[in-house]
Write a structure and sequence with these properties.
The protein is an alpha/beta fold and about 230 residues long. It is built from nine helices and seven strands. The protein is globular and about 70 Å long. The relative contact order is 0.12.
Length: about 230
């Protein structure tokens, strides 16, 4: 009986139906897992602790730098940067809930300011040593235009980026092939191949000084090529 059931389940047409079901469940469970993981750790995603990705940004900044963190979220990255580099920083964030959380997290850091606005509407005339886009660029439709705008408007010495990779595991292209949601977040406009990322950086008039692959993501330091 067991052999018969196995033969039925693993018969290609049946196996394909089961595979589609499991990949859909994988996508749903991944989303819920993230939400419950945040709740279990009192509001901070365990990825901050386990991936230690903050150190890429910290290690590519200098003491006293003037920093603009676009899409700063709850301020966890800015807090680490402030602690380790004594940076003067502005965090820009659209979500009012995140702004409240970030201001609370950074209340003891007078050199860090959190502003509730869209970066396109940021009206201050100032320059920054570094601009941070950590898991932000992939949410933007006009990504090249944004990078060009940041370069011209704020004259940064460098732009530090972190973006998700399309080629992070075999399930991603397989889900796409099956017509199942494959993105980590349904608000992502893109999840990059290395070639796509390099092309957009170049189209924005930037060049990559550093590119690191870690945890299924690309971490980059980009500077103006002109």
């Amino acid at each position: 009986m067991k052999k018969l059931i196995k033969n039925i389940l693993f018969h290609p047409p049946v196996a394909k139906v089961i595979t589609k079901l499991l990949t859909r469940l994988h996508h749903i469970s991944y989303s819920y897992l993230g939400a419950f993981a945040v709740a279990s750790e009192e509001g901070l995603h365990p990825k901050h602790r386990l991936m230690n990705y903050h150190m890429f940004f910290v290690n590519n900044l200098s003491k006293g730098d003037r920093i603009l963190d676009i899409g700063c979220g709850n301020g966890a990255l800015l807090k680490d940067i402030a602690l380790k580099t004594d940076a003067r920083a502005v965090g820009v964030e659209l979500s009012e809930e995140n702004v409240t959380a970030a201001r609370e997290m950074l209340s003891g850091f007078p050199k860090v300011e959190i502003i509730n606005t869209d970066i396109w509407e940021y009206s201050r005339q100032e320059t920054f040593d570094a601009i941070i886009l950590s898991n932000v660029l992939e949410h933007i439709e006009k990504r090249v235009e944004l990078l060009q705008y940041l370069k011209i408007q704020f004259s940064p010495n460098k732009i530090l980026l972190r973006v998700p990779m399309f080629e992070r595991e075999w399930l991603v292209p397989y889900k796409k092939e099956l017509g199942i949601e494959w993105r980590l977040d349904e608000t992502h406009e893109i999840e990059y191949t290395e070639a796509e990322f390099r092309d957009e950086i170049s189209a924005a008039g930037l060049e990559l000084e550093k590119l690191v692959f870690q945890w299924g993501e690309m971490y980059a330091v980009a500077k103006s090529s002109t």
